[in-house]
Design goal:
Blueprint lengths: L4 H19 L2 H35 L4 H54 L8 H17 L2 H29 L3 H43 L6 H6 L3 H53 L5 H42 L19 E9 L6 E10 L4 E6 L5 H8 L7 E6 L2 E2 L5 H5 L2 E4 L10 H6 L6 H11 L2 H6 L21 H15 L3 E5 L7 H14 L4 E5 L11 E6 L2 E6 L1 H5 L5 H13 L4
Parallel strand pairs: 3-8, 3-9, 6-7, 7-8
Antiparallel strand pairs: 1-2, 1-4, 4-5, 9-10
Helix pairs in contact: 1-5, 1-9, 2-3, 2-5, 2-9, 3-4, 3-5, 4-6, 4-9, 5-9, 6-8, 6-9, 8-9, 13-15
The structure holds adenosine-5'-diphosphate.
Adenosine-5'-diphosphate (ADP) binds next to helix 10.
């Protein structure tokens, strides 16, 4: 995405304005009120003191006090009144803006999480995407200030333009030569300012990666889930060392950033001092030669400073707006991350389903190596298939392709004769209940871990807990189904045993009640006999449904109608247990003979 700077600013600005209009139109009203409360008193603050001083000078010059005192009191009261009222309105507007700013922070966090959870699965393994997610998060929050931060810059430009116009009129009338002095100073200062912005941007990119690693170290490693491994492997020192290194790198980064910015901010200070000196000298000269009154002197000094700051604010706000938009644009880039997968629209027809892999070959994204080649297999409705093979043979990849977490590189997968790319994702995924080897339990309640959607049927939850053998254990938990797992949400949350965790994952698959059930070695941590029991029970629970079991132990195979043996990136053997077990020199026959001791008793 190689867009020009103007496009980035324009696109981001339009996005921010539209989002504010859609979600919080009140924000525009707040800016309007703030504008009135800042610009009107701002102009009064330049003009009114002139009249006040001129009146006082007249009294000093010998004119009767009574003639001027009421005007003086009136002007003074007006200045104080306007000042008070405007500060009150501005502070109220700022408070409201802060609330809206917080609201938008949450809003964008939610949008990002939801996009990250629903984008093409392959992106979740792409380091470039992870980096982009980090930058989008930071860019839309504290680096740009989000909607409010960016609209603040826009507001500042509009307000400063209005002030500039008013002040220029005043100065042109009194001492026009002040204008070029301010403009020259400003041009020099903007050069320094733009250098500072560039340095900021350079370090944003550099520090973003460090922030991501830092977040991982500071937040994730303190998670209790890692507690056991860290203690048992005595890794605390190694972790602290990493924390130390990353902390030092971050501090070094900030120090370097400040060192680079220092000469530029010094330059700005010097130009400011010279500009003030010249302005005072020139206006003082006009007063001494009686070309202007003392009131005019005050107004010009005040006006010159306002003129300068208005111009400065415009240039600085334009630069800041550009910079902030380039940060926030990372959010737009991330949310528009291309969807490589075609999105189908077809509905899956109800009932039982035939699954067919036809000449399917696959290599992972960003990899040149095929992990599956020319896979051809048909799984009939209600059939139970066991997939066996050594580690790395491609069994899990086969399941990932079937669930359409990835698209095939060659060939096609058909369900009921239709290429799965043509089905709507949401509809298609409803076909499967999968328990992966690396299934994840969340730090939510036991019930939520099983249901995983918003609609809960407690009777069914209890039923599946009974089926998976976890019901008795769940009754012993402090808060039953409401007991939280892990300590993240609830400090009294529970830690389930390995077996209980597996049963929770299996309950989740049963609760979903999908027509195709897949177990991808979720029982790897169990001994062969316990695994045999789980598969046996599970097999009877899913009778009538299509089931696919993966295991490199053969305990699952005996209940299955068909067995597919994966080796050398493809299906090497396929058939019933009896057929394959008796095949001379067969891979399955060899594996079965080696493992038979575990199952002989039960065969
Ligand atoms: P199995 O389930 O039979 O143990 P997998 O399907 O997990 O095997 O892996 C098959 C091959 O694909 C292995 O060589 C593995 O390293 C590779 N692989 C698995 N996941 C990925 C991935 N996300 N990116 C790249 N290669 C992968």
């Amino acid at each position: 995405m190689n867009k020009g700077k103007e496009h980035i600013t324009k696109d981001t600005l339009i996005f921010m304005l539209k989002t504010a209009k859609k979600e919080k139109p009140l924000l525009f009203f707040i800016y309007l009120i703030k504008f009135i409360a800042e610009v009107v008193p701002g102009m009064f603050a330049i003009i009114l003191p002139k009249f006040l001083i001129d009146e006082i000078v007249k009294i000093i010059g010998g004119e009767p006090v009574e003639e001027h005192i009421y005007t003086i009191i009136f002007i003074a009261a007006l200045i104080i009144g306007i000042e008070l009222l405007s500060s009150l309105i501005i502070s109220l507007a700022e408070q409201l803006k802060d609330i809206i700013r917080e609201w938008f922070d949450q809003y964008f966090d939610m949008k990002l999480s939801s996009h990250a959870m629903t984008m093409d699965f392959e992106h979740t393994e792409n380091p470039e995407v992870l980096d982009k997610l980090g930058k989008a998060k930071e860019g839309m929050s504290w680096y740009s200030g989000g909607v409010v931060g960016i609209l603040d810059h826009l507001y500042k430009i509009i307000k400063s333009l209005a002030m500039l116009f008013g002040v220029s009129v005043v100065i042109l009338l009194v001492c026009p030569m002040l204008i070029p002095v301010q403009i020259i100073a400003l041009v020099i200062i903007s050069v320094f300012n733009s250098k500072i912005q560039n340095i900021n941007k350079k370090y944003f990119l550099r520090l973003s990666k460090l922030n991501r690693v830092g977040d991982y170290i500071f937040n994730e490693l303190s998670d209790f889930r890692y507690g056991k491994d860290i203690r048992l492997y005595n890794s605390a020192d190694m972790m602290c060392q990493k924390t130390d290194t990353i902390g030092k790198e971050m501090v070094d980064g900030w120090k370097q950033e400040n060192r680079e910015m220092f000469p530029h901010s010094m330059g700005m200070d010097i130009v400011n001092a010279v500009r003030d000196g010249i302005s005072y000298f020139y206006i003082g000269y006009l007063v001494l030669t009686k070309a202007i009154t003392i009131g005019d002197f005050q107004m010009s000094i005040n006006g010159a400073s306002r003129l300068y700051w208005s111009l400065f604010n415009i240039i600085q706000s334009v630069q800041e707006l550009n910079t902030s938009c380039s940060y926030a644009h990372r959010y737009l880039e991330f949310t528009a991350f291309p969807c490589a997968m075609t999105k189908g629209t077809k509905s899956v027809k109800p009932g039982r389903h035939t699954i067919e892999f036809s000449h399917v070959s696959f290599k992972y994204p960003r990899s040149e190596k095929y992990v599956l080649r020319d896979i051809n297999i048909t799984i009939n409705p209600g059939e139970h298939l066991s997939i066996v093979g050594l580690n790395g043979a491609g069994k899990t990849t086969f399941i990932k392709l079937l669930c359409r977490l990835y698209d095939v590189t060659e060939g096609e997968i058909l369900v009921d004769g239709v290429n799965i790319k043509e089905y709507s994702d949401e509809e298609y995924r409803k076909l499967f209940s999968v328990v992966f080897q690396d299934y994840q339990l969340f730090a939510f309640s036991l019930r939520e871990n099983i249901v995983l959607t918003e609609e809960t049927d407690d009777n069914r939850v209890k039923e599946v807990l009974k089926q998976s053998g976890l019901y008795e254990d769940s009754l012993k938990l402090d808060h039953g189904l409401d007991t939280y797992l892990f300590k993240t949400y609830d400090e009294k949350g529970t830690e389930l045993s390995g077996g209980q965790k597996q049963k929770t994952a299996i309950s989740r698959a049963l609760y979903r009640n999908a027509p195709v059930v897949i177990l991808d070695e979720p029982t790897a941590a169990l001994d062969p006999v316990a695994e045999y029991e789980i598969y046996r029970q599970f097999n009877s629970l899913v009778k009538g449904k299509t089931a696919i079991y993966i295991s490199h132990r053969l305990s699952s195979c005996k209940f299955c109608d068909k067995i597919a043996v994966f080796a050398d990136d493809t299906i090497k053997e396929y058939g019933t247990h009896d057929l394959l077990a008796n095949k001379s020199n067969g891979i399955y026959a060899g594996m079965f003979a080696a493992q038979a001791q575990y199952y002989v008793k039960r065969a």
